[in-house]
């Protein structure tokens, strides 16, 4: 699986927290694709789960946008900011709601995410 590949690369000295040109790091891809074990491994190895890409998206934002509740829960438990807004003012809750990811919306609301926050466009 994906975790074995990441571990293999890490064991051989690969920089598993390096960013690409959009400032996305491997933890972004893992969150985007719902690779829970990889997200956990990278966080345990020091990946910055609060880092934002050029759009202001964090790994938690991406997981919420894509509707990956287990990844959202893990990142929140690891200390990710559930209210971190992107450059347009979208919060993870807003991104989940607009994409119909009810389980993620419920989790974030239960964790205290502000359901009244509007984007920069209202």
UniProtKB/TrEMBL annotation:
SUPFAM superfamilies with a match to the protein in the record: Ankyrin repeat
Keywords, alphabetical: ANK repeat, Repeat
Pfam family, one: Ank_2
ANK repeats: 1-21, 22-54, 55-87, 88-120
Listed name of the protein: Ankyrin repeat protein
Organism, as annotated: Sodiomyces alkalinus (strain CBS 110278 / VKM F-3762 / F11)
